[in-house]
Write a structure and sequence with these properties.
Layout: H1 7-17, H2 19-31, E1 34-40, E2 48-53, E3 60-66, H3 82-93, E4 97-101, H4 113-128, E5 135-145, H5 147-157, E6 179-183, H6 191-198, H7 202-212, H8 220-227, H9 230-236, E7 249-252, H10 262-266, H11 269-282, E8 286-289, H12 303-311
Parallel strand pairs: 3-4, 3-5, 5-6, 6-7, 7-8
Antiparallel strand pairs: 1-2, 2-4
Helix pairs in contact: 1-2, 2-3, 4-5
Length: about 300
């Protein structure tokens, strides 16, 4: 096991990185947590995760957090911002472990597949090492924000991707989880589903996607061709993966009703509405909040209650 960080090291390091890390340092000391930083879950540079582990005599449930950033930015440390730390504090108070991961960004060769596959690898790594980290691998909830929300929906709504015959011991682990929390995620990766939702034609949709892909190193035209490939769509579109065996989902979208750019489209409350309709039709347990559309009372958004109800 790599990099179990001492309290003295944390204090020195987090002063260097600013106030958020000082707050995390206090959280670790106040809750007597074990903090494991930059644990490698794969071979790629971005295949790193952090773990916050309660001091527990019994195996602990686990929350796995995936940051946002449009698959072009962001990092696991985003999770340590002040507004999130109180939520993490509430989680560990309930004897629940917490992981936050880095993952690969979009690329010209396989689009989003590497990003999505990294989320799967991190989950399987943690399940394989559940004894080492004192985790209950049958009690895991995925929590994602923005692009991270898309990834947890893809992972949590996919059929089990375990590979029993694989030579990779991690890959043998089940990818099934007990719950999904999606904050400002999209309802689908499928281009046709998006066009129906926002009622635009192919030309306008392509212009919108091109705006999103203005990123150093991205071959926009190649990306568009790959994105429209039927097999690629089949591999990534979690909306069409959904079936009655899926775990409970909590969805919250706080985007504007009249978006001004692609990023605001990504968070549009209609995504929450479409996911709720699909989940209801399949009898998948769900809690959905899209206040701009009158769906759910914002004061009723209590992710900790959702988590506790699943784990108890």
């Amino acid at each position: 096991m790599k990099n179990i960080v001492s309290i003295s090291f944390l204090f020195f390091s987090f002063i260097t990185y600013g106030q958020n890390f000082q707050l995390l340092d206090s959280l670790i000391m106040n809750h007597n947590l074990t903090f494991i930083k930059d644990l490698n879950y794969g071979e790629k540079e971005k295949n790193k995760l952090d773990l916050l582990l309660p001091n527990s005599k019994i195996k602990t449930p686990l929350i796995i957090y995936l940051h946002g950033g449009g698959y072009r930015g962001g990092k696991k440390e985003n999770s340590y911002k002040k507004r999130n730390l109180q939520f993490i504090s509430n989680i560990v108070d309930k004897n629940i472990a917490y992981a936050t991961i880095n993952y690969s960004f979009l690329n010209n060769e396989d689009g989003l597949l590497s990003s999505l596959d990294d989320a799967k690898k991190a989950l399987q790594f943690l399940k394989f090492n559940h004894e080492k980290f004192n985790l209950d691998k049958e009690k895991i909830i995925l929590w994602g924000v923005s692009s991270g929300a898309n990834s947890v929906l893809w992972l949590g709504l996919s059929d089990d991707m375990a590979e029993p015959e694989s030579n990779n011991l991690y890959a043998k682990e089940s990818t099934r989880v007990q719950g999904i929390i999606s904050i400002n995620g999209a309802h689908s990766f499928n281009a046709d589903n998006w066009k129906r939702m926002i009622n635009i034609n192919d030309k306008m949709f392509d212009l919108m996607i091109k705006g999103f892909l203005k990123y150093p190193g991205v071959d926009v035209e190649k990306w568009l061709v790959n994105y429209k490939d039927e097999k690629y769509q089949e591999n990534i579109d979690y909306y069409n993966f959904m079936d009655p065996s899926d775990p409970p989902i909590l969805i919250a979208n706080y985007g504007k009703l009249i978006p001004k750019n692609i990023f605001e489209f990504n968070h549009h409350p209609l995504h929450a509405k479409y996911l709720k309709q699909r989940a209801d039709s399949l009898k998948i347990k769900n809690m959905v909040f899209a206040p701009a559309l009158g769906i759910g009372d914002e004061q009723g958004f209590k992710p900790l209650d959702f988590i506790i109800n699943i784990f108890n």
